[in-house]
Amino acid sequence: MLHQQIDQKISEKEAWALRRQLGIPNNKRLWVLACMDERLPIEKALGIGEGDAHIFRNAGGLVTDDAIRSAMLTTQFFGTKEIIVINHTECGMMTASGDFLTEILHNQGIDVDQVSVDPALPELKLPKGVFSKWIKTFTDVDEICIQQVKLLRNSALIPQDVVIHGYIWEVESMSLRRPYKRLSDQVNTASAMKTKTTKHTKPILEIGSLIE
Q1: By Cβ atoms counted within 10 A, which residue in 3, 33, 94, 155 is the most buried?
Q2: Which CATH topology does 30-96+137-178 take?
């Protein structure tokens, strides 16, 4: 009946708006750590929709203090049971070193050894000479993805029963793959296709014996 349909929609709206009050987790019980790059469409990449996950994005899709803070909250208090890390090819974090970026900031008159990394906690400052490491640039997207999974797995703030995996989004093919598992490396190569060749067998007669 119509009133049942109306009541159902009202109940769904209440459950959506009051999720935290009611202790309802996101639909997939999923937390995603990903790069902020505009070429990385998280929902499309994972095949998820609105309400399916808590999504945390930063430069590089890297494990930082704030990423750990968010991962801790979602897994310890919001019912999340799975974490997926997504890094991507052609990431801007591979275009320069931390030292190079720090030098640019220094040339602009910024004393990176004195800046607060959290405006809300001015007492929180990095030790001298650590700023370039704090930026967290990298050179290998596959290796960095594996490292992020390990960092999350080794965090005492994340329950051991949380499932954690990492993937690479290829901006050139618009698809996900596992780290170091480039499909293009296995396509159209003779070695991967195990090309069959003629087997050279030992001749029955030695050439010298034919002359005699």
Answers
A1: 33
A2: Beta-carbonic Anhydrase; Chain A (3.40.1050)
